[in-house]
Write a structure and sequence with these properties.
The protein is of the alpha/beta class. Helix content is about 45%, strand content about 20%. It has 2 domains: about 190 residues, P-loop containing nucleotide triphosphate hydrolases (Rossmann fold), CATH 3.40.50.300; about 170 residues, Glutathione S-transferase Yfyf (Class Pi), Chain A, domain 2 (Up-down Bundle), CATH 1.20.1050. The chain has a 6-stranded antiparallel sheet with strand order 2-1-4-5-6-7, covered by helices on one side. A hairpin with a 2-residue loop joins β14 and β15. α5 crosses α7, α6 crosses α7 and α7 crosses α11. The longest helix has about 40 residues.
């Protein structure tokens, strides 16, 4: 059992640390009018026509948890034309119902300000720990169709939230790699000058790789179990590739590839080349599966991360799902919602027709609200106490 995974019997009695977003205020974002929503439920559905602003609300929750949009790196489209800044404020409830105020202000010129509990905060890490966000949106397909970078980011999100020492090792590895590559491009590099960075790079890389391997060993069976509940995909294989030859040490690999690195001006092998490979009968899954099948695989990947986070840290994240019904038939929508219900985490979802999600077989989650979004205006139209109705 990985060192960061607590014993199963401990999981059964330790109280879970619920994270719940209770309030949200938005100003200066896209086409949204000033938004103020109090007392979110466990299931929160934003419905309305295309272009109404549903996705923008999920985007703002994402900004509140990570200080950035999931729809692109540029701030210009996010902040309203006549505004210089946008602000997202929320309250995060913990198990004891104490509310922690969180606020993020972004400026068109690129600056940002974060406040947590009434205090200025410079660390994005603290923000991510305060409101852990997991996202499934249209860009999620890049987990299958995109390059290794997207899958490394996916895996590192999971490792970061379960192994607290990982970020320091990852940051050291990135710093050493950057310096080594700069030395390679300087035109003055040789074995002696590179050795100054190689030892620390190797040490940090081995720590990063070890954490990733341990995480993948725990993640894989959870993912397979979730996928089997969603869709049958014979021939699917999932494996972790560390980024260099498994039969050689990174020290030996760097030494043997130094001439190639010098010619090309960058480091060819290391944890920056790691990948999670998903294949169907030996072929890239993104090239074989239909869009609906791809979405279900991505959902299984993301939800397995949520579940593993609970089992390893006793802390629950908040899940954002943009346009859940898209490209999934009614039968698979029901299976997905049943799986979401079993995770017992707070959900924020968008759709065009609210009944597509309201009428799903919710059994474990106790409350549901529907918000209609129309031309940037948001109105609560339905509130259900499902526990009272059962």
């Amino acid at each position: 059992m990985p060192s960061f995974l607590p014993a199963i019997d401990a999981i059964q009695w330790r109280a879970l640390f619920h994270v719940k977003l209770s309030e949200l205020e938005i100003s200066g974002v896209r086409n949204l009018s000033a938004v103020s929503i109090n007392n979110f439920s466990e299931i929160n559905i934003f419905s309305g026509p295309n272009g109404a602003g549903k996705t923008s609300i999920l985007e703002d929750i994402h900004i509140l948890g990570l200080a950035r949009s999931f729809r692109g790196t540029q701030l210009q489209p996010v902040i309203q034309y006549h505004q210089d800044t946008c602000t997202v404020f929320g309250k995060v409830l913990h198990d004891d119902q104490s509310a922690l105020a969180v606020g993020v202000k972004r400026a068109k010129r690129g600056g940002f300000r974060i406040r947590i509990g009434g205090q200025d905060e410079k660390s994005l890490i603290r923000l991510a720990e305060t409101l852990p966000i997991q996202l499934i949106d249209s860009s999620a397909y890049t987990l299958l169709e995109g390059g290794p970078k997207q899958r490394r980011q996916f895996m590192d999100w999971g490792v970061f939230h379960v192994e607290h020492s990982f970020y320091d090792s990852w940051r050291r590895m990135q710093r050493c790699l950057k310096q080594r590559n700069a030395t390679l491009r300087s035109g003055k590099a040789n074995k002696r000058t590179l050795s100054a960075w190689d030892q620390e790079l190797i040490e940090a890389s081995e720590q990063v790789n070890k954490a990733r391997m341990l995480y993948f060993e725990s993640f894989y069976p959870v993912f397979v179990g979730f996928l089997e509940r969603l869709v049958d995909l014979p021939g699917l294989s999932v494996s972790y590739s560390r980024g260099w030859d498994t039969d050689k040490s990174l020290s030996d690999v760097l030494a043997s590839s130094i001439d190639r690195d010098l010619r090309r001006g960058f480091t060819h092998y290391g944890p920056h080349r790691a990948d999670i490979k998903l294949q169907i009968n030996g072929l890239n899954a993104g090239q074989v599966l239909s869009r609906g099948q791809q979405k279900l695989v991505v959902c299984a990947l993301r939800l397995a991360q949520c579940d593993l986070m609970v089992k390893t840290t006793q802390k629950k994240c908040v899940l954002l799902i943009d346009d859940l019904p898209a490209e999934i038939d009614a039968s698979h929508q029901g299976k997905l919602c049943t799986l979401l219900d079993s995770l017992d985490i707070q959900l924020f979802m968008t759709c065009v027709v609210a009944d597509d999600l309201v009428n799903q077989p919710w059994e474990k989650l106790k409350s549901l609200k529907v918000f209609q979004v129309l031309k940037g205006e948001t109105e609560e139209t339905l509130s259900l106490d499902m526990a009272a109705e059962r």
